[in-house]
Amino acid sequence: MHKFDDQASKILLKVLSHTIERLSMDPPTLDYPKSVDFFEKNAPSLITEAGNSIDKVFDQYKNTIEQSIISADSPRNLSFIPAAPTKASMIFDLVVSAGSLNGVSWIEGSGAVWVENQVIRWIADLVGFPEDAGGCFVAGGTNGNLSSLVVAREKHRKKYKDHSKRLAIICSDQTHSSVKSTAKVMDCDVIVVPTNDSFQLTRESIENELKVHSKKYKELDIFAIVATAGTTNLGVIDDISGISKYAKRNKIWLHVDGAYGGAGLLSEKVKDLFSGIEYADSFIVDPHKWFFAPFDCAAVIYRNKHLAAEVHSQQASYLDILHDEEAGDNPSDYAFHLTRRARGLPMWFSLSVYGVDAYRQAVESSLDIAKYAADEIKKSSYLTLLIEPSLSVVAFERDNWGWEEYKNWSTEQLKKQVCFVVPSLVRGKPVFRFAFLNPETSKEIVDEILLSLE
Q1: What's residue 245's pLDDT?
Q2: Same domain for 410 and 280?
Q3: Is residue 191 included in any domain, yes or no?
Q4: Looking at residue 133, what is its pLDDT?
Q5: Is the four-CA dihedral 433, 277, 294, 144 of positive or negative sign?
Q6: Does residue 102 lie in a domain region?
Q7: Are residues 109 and 101 in contact, defined by beta-carbon separation less than 8 angstroms?
Q8: What is the reported pLDDT for 235?
Q9: Which DSSP letter does residue 296 get?
Q10: Are residues 282 and 362 both part of a single domain?
C-alpha cells in the first residue's frame, strides 16, 4: 500500500489513461443521476477484508459511478453555480494530490503558502485592499462566510465588553443561505432586509427596515452587515458603496460575499458595479466558480489579516512551534480550520501559465453570452425576462407554466442531455435561470435550450 510497486504502477497508468481521456472530451458529457435501486444492483460494495482486483474496482467507477455524476464542467450545465476549471488547473491538481501537499503552516508548506499568498494578494489588489490585507484558501464560501463573521463578532465583543444584548447580522432576502446557517452556528440573530425592485440590498433599505421595526430590533446589537457581490439566484450586486458608508458611520463590520460574482472585478465592463467593495472589512470569492479552479477552492481575505489571526490562531502545546519565530503566514491562522490541503496551488499554476488577460477574456465571454441569452428571451413570445442580467446569471419565466411544468421540462432535458437547468423561485414565482460560467457555452446551445421551451 505504501510502496510504489507493480500494483501502484498499474493503478497510476490506468488512472492517467482515464484522466487523459476525460480531459480530452470536447465537450465533457453531461451525464445524469441514477436511483438507489440502480446502485444497489450495479454498484454493490467492494469493501472487503481481502480487497479486489484493480480492474474490478476501477471498472465500477468508470462504467457506473462516474456516469452518474453530473459534469459541473459541461457547457450544458447552467444550474446552481457550475464550474469550468481550466485544463492546467485540473492537471496540476494531480500534483497537489500525488504530493500530499500540506498547506497548514509555513513550517510545513512554506513553498505552497508562498505561491498561494501570491494569488491571495492578486485577488486583494482586484478588490482594492491595503497591504495589510491577507487571508487563505478554504473549502468553500460557507467556510469563508463563517470565518469572516466570527472575526467580526470577536472584534465587536472586544470593543464592547459590557454589552449584554443579542448579537445580530444584517443581510438581505437574497443573501446566500450559508449566512443564516453561520448565524445559527454562532448563536446570533439575522435581520433580513427586503431588497428593492432590482433585488438589491441598499443603504436606504437597511435604514428603513431598522426604523420601521425599531421596537422589534431594539434588543439586538448589530455587529456585521453582509453585502453580496453577485447573488446566487439572480447575479445581482448590492449597493456596496452605500452600504459601506452606512457601515462606516455606524462602526459595523462590512463583509462582502463575492463567492460567485467576485470574479467580475476582472472586467472593465462591470467593475463599476462593485464600487465601495474596497471599504469592506472582509471578502470572499470562490475560485472554483468563476475563477476556473477545480473543487474545492474559496478565498477568504481580510482588510486587516492580523485581526483574523488573533481570532483563528489555535493554541496548544503541540502547535507552539508553528508560531515560534514565524517567518511567513500560517493559513491555519486565518479561518476556522487547521488541517488543509494546498488547494490554492491549481489556481496559482493555471493563472501563472495562461496569464490574467486569458482569465479576463474567459470572464467576459460569460458576460457576453448572458447578454445574448437575455436579448433572445426578450424577443420570445413565450418567455419573459425577469431582470436585466448584471453579471452572468439570466433569470426568466416561461409564460403560463406552473412549478410542475418547470420541473417536468427540467427532468426531460437532462434525460435528453440537452441541458441541466433546474427551476428556482423568486418571490414565490417559479423561474428558470441560466448561470453562465463556462466559456464553451455557445450561442447554439442557448438557442437549442430556448427552442425546447416553446
Answers
A1: 98
A2: no
A3: yes
A4: 97
A5: negative
A6: yes
A7: yes
A8: 98
A9: S
A10: no
Which pTM does this prediction carry? 0.96
**Beta carbons of 366 and 174 less than 8 angstroms apart:** no
The β-bridge partners of 221 are 167
Main-chain dihedrals φ then ψ at residue 306, nearest 5 degrees? -70, -30
Q: Please count the structural domains in the chain.
A: 2
Helix (H) or strand (E) holding 223: strand 220-228
For 442, phi and psi rounded to 5 degrees?
-100, 170
Pairing of strands 253-257, 220-228: parallel
Phi, psi of 400 (to 5 degrees): 65, 20
Which residue reads 460575499 in cell numbers? 257
CATH number of the structural domain spanning residue 126: 3.40.640.10
Q: Which amino acid is at 339?
A: T
CA distance 334 to 137: 9
How many other C-beta atoms are found inside a 10 Å radius of the C-beta of residue 119?
23
Residue 77: inside a domain, yes or no?
no
pLDDT band with cut points at 50, 70 and 90 for residue 60: very high
pLDDT tens-digit map of 15-50: 999 999 999 999 999 999 999 999 999 999 999 999
Q: Are residues 119 and 206 in the same domain?
A: yes
Nearest to 200 by CA among 176, 228, 180: 228
Whether 79 is in a domain gets the answer no
> Could you give the CA distance from residue 126 to residue 290 in angstroms, rounded to a whole number?
14
127-163 pLDDT tens trace: 999 999 999 999 999 999 999 999 999 999 998 887 7
Tell me: do 166 and 312 sit in the same domain: yes
Cell 420541473 -> residue: 407
Residues 152, 282: contact at Cβ < 8 Å? yes
Place of cell 471498472: 59
How wide is the angle at C-alpha 258 spanned by C-alphas 256 and 259, nearest 5°? 130
